[in-house]
Amino acid sequence: xxxxxxxxxxxxxxxxxxxxxxxxxxxxxxxxxxxxxxxxxxxxxxxxxxxxxxxxxxxxxxxxxxxxxxxxxxxxxxxxxxxxxxxxxxxxxxxxxxxxxxxxxxxxxxxxxxxxxxxxxxxxxxxxxxxxxxxxxxxxxxxxxxxxxxxxxxxxxxxxxxxxxxxxxxxxxxxxxxxxxxxxxxxxxxxxxxxxxxxxxxxxxxxxxxxxxxxxxxxxxxxxxxxxxxxxxxxxxxxxxxxxxxxxxxxxxxxxxxxxxxxxxxxxxxxxxxxxxxxxxxxxxxxxxxxxxxxxxxxxxxxxxxxxxxxxxxxxxxxxxxxxxxxxxxxxxxxxxxx
Amino acid sequence: xxxxxxxxxxxxxxxxxxxxxxxxxxxxxxxxxxxxxxxxxxxxxxxxxxxxxxxxxxxxxxxxxxxxxxxxxxxxxxxxxxxxxxxxxxxxxxxxxxxxxxxxxxxxxxxxxxxxxxxxxxxxxxxxxxxxxxxxxxxxxxxxxxxxxxxxxxxxxxxxxxxxxxxxxxxxxxxxxxxxxxxxxxxxxxxxxxxxxxxxxxxxxxxxxxxxxxxxxxxxxxxxxxxxxxxxxxxxxxxxxxxxxxxxxxxxxxxx
Lengths: 339, 256
Ligand SMILES: Nc1ncnc2c1ncn2[C@@H]1O[C@H](COP(=O)(O)OP(=O)(O)O)[C@@H](O)[C@H]1O
Ligand SMILES: [Mg+2]
Fold this sequence. Notes:
binds adenosine-5'-diphosphate
């Protein structure tokens, strides 16, 4: 029984991370799956979301900190909204010069901005505390909930160990519920919008933006909406991440974790299909976590383990693209479906 | 809008690509309600002229007037809104979308194109979607593409893709339709159907301006033919007059 609860506790932890990745994938799905916008700087938006929310909701700088700004201790929801807004503004600023040009420029611009953001996180210590990162980011409602749980356990000392273990993990269940609720909301928005005339225009732009323009659609404006909305969703994921892990620094948002994995998730799951994006996130995060267990079991060194895991993911992606290029769940045939 | 008034007027239009003058002080008039043909040897600048009219290219000089309103330099989507539809010489279908979706995209100013309406005002968006779908089904019925409505556009034959191009341009309810070589690469049966469609549409008040090489087709369909050579209009007349004109023969032979 204790073993079972241990696994359950791990699964909750697993699902929180996978759920955050699923939010990121839904953001990318709007940009790439629907509109064909090639964003390879997801990590940048992820990071901006995390830092923004952490600075809005976190504690003021401590005596050992370099940063002189932030720590407004605002509510969690404000942090998420701020994260979304910050990412939306950055996407807008990238989009204005770039979205009128050929599509390759967006790839270059997003990659470049992500790198600039990473450098800012590393070097602008007044804002980001540079390599020391941001600490003690509060998890939403953790203090009251944990308090109640501890009080309960104290007054019930005779409960079996497995039940105590289960109950003490209660806060993570709560956090998981928050993640899944948000994921569900974003899923609803992206499903409803892709099936609408709005989504039809995005898909037309993906197929051939000249044709979309010839049909009287303002291609630039639609691409901008897609880029901004996708980025805002990524920002929200960043916010959740920061408040879950409580400590972030520049290395948290390396391109491998912040960009590459999310692309794999979307493509494996089924680009253009919101359910596919979510499924892909859980499956690929499962494979990723599984290979972690395997390399740990084989007692491989950090660098070798990491490269082996990347190879494993790469092979898996290759197999999917060869056997099922549309992903596990491809795009549906008739997407426009308002009635 | 009296019969025979000018719907499209091009005045001394110019467009160069590097040193090459693709369109060179070209002046052309198209009469409302006509089926006007545009001929000329390869490279004469016909497609470029269409691209200038529809806003795909910006002209260097000259003016374009539509319904006594200047439209020179308007972006593509605004030209469409004025009532000029076009088909592409090489069909450009939205490949991974169904035939029906290809058509339903076209109508302008759909409420549901505003994401806010699509999320929170789905009732009125749905009503409009139903209307647009009915219209698309009508067009598909008319062009006898109805059985293909749920097919991916990429799976159509090349002839069917040409019809799809026409269907798409009809969805915008244009007054003037520019067709770039509608007959190229489609079989005689489909061609007859296309001719019939064009005539029926003209009877419904549409004007056609079409690039075509096939003289038989031109003779059959067009009231007026304009011949272009080296970026400029060369002759204008009825198909019979054009056939006899020596300058035309020379233009074609001179390049052969
Ligand atoms: N986008 C372009 N860039 C450079 N040259 C072009 C372009 N479009 C057309 N041209 C040139 O302009 C001339 C006219 O081309 P086009 O209008 O396609 O002729 P047509 O349709 O009458 O056969 C040709 O010499 C062609 O090579
Ligand atoms: Mg041509």
